[in-house]
Amino acid sequence: MDTRALLSLATVAETGSFSRAASALGFTQSAVSQHVAGLERTAGTPLLTRRPTVAPTSAGREFLRHARQILAHEQAARAAVARVTGRDEDTPVSVAVTPATEQLVPVAGRLASVVVVDAAAAAAALMSGGADVAVVDGIAAPGDPLPGSGPDLVVRVVREAPLAVLLPVVHPLARRSGIDLAALTDARWLGTTGTTCSTSELASAARLGLRRGTAYTGASADTVAALVRAGHGLHAAPASAVPPDGLAVVPLTAPRLVHRIEVRVHAGPRAAVLALADAVRAAP
Q: Are 66 and 161 members of one domain?
């Protein structure tokens, strides 16, 4: 299957326009139309609506899910070949980091780019060749890998700390030496997804349903602290964290979970990539 056709289909779906897709890809509009029409003949059904708007059909959405996987695999294959042949030996290093790990990336050295994304996007960028190094953090049981690890990756732990609960100092449990998470399932938790130790990560790792309070979709630790302090919900934090004013950090006694920061590179990395990964691990 022609990956150019898959790229045309994906770009039309993303832009909602054949002409905008052609402009973005450097193709003619006629070529983009022919690419999509050829895929529709192969699929035996329309993949896009044309009027009143250009959008994927139900079949198109399913087709696109697989098409994007194929495109990602092709990009990963190209990146793997470049690593093996050494064609990228002198290329500056690209890094994908999560918000909690951004400060670990050294500014010295030849950096092509540093992009701040969530852990899933950082892992995907590394696998596809969009990044040479991924620095990610997340919640896991001790010894378990964080999501997004792969068989051809070298994963090194930068730091790891037991998990704790961040709660106001006036909370009845604030003076305890430890808390069982099962005792807090009826408590309100901040509805976070992109923060360090997000509630969605905690619920998934603990396999518990947590009652959601105020939703917060940002990544600011100061905002999380302010929301917890104001009583909008509890939040998880590394037990090693220094509690902000008005807050307490109480370790979780059960389940046993940790907050871990990892640096990941592909096996057999070039010297510049390895040097940057080592610098991340050595960061204070």
A: no
- Report pLDDT digits (tens) over 57-112: 999 999 999 988 887 777 766 666 665 555 555 678 889 999 989 999 988 777 88
- Choice among 77-91, 117-131, 233-247, 267-281 with the minimum mean pLDDT: 77-91
Same structural domain, 47 and 134: no
Q: Which helix (H) or strand (E) holds 214?
A: strand 211-216
Listed in sequence order, the residues at least 6 apart from 101 whose beta carbon sits closer than 8 Å to its beta carbon are 135, 136, 137, 158, 261, 280
Name which of 92, 150, 159, 88 is nearest 125 in CA terms: 150
Rounded to two decimals, the pTM is: 0.70
Structural domain boundaries enclosing 64:
3-85
Burial class (CB in 10 A: 0-12, 13-18, 19+), 50: exposed
User: What's the mean pLDDT when you consider all of the chain?
Assistant: 88
**In this structure, are 95 and 78 located in the same domain?**
no
Last residue of a domain, one of 52, 85, 118: 85
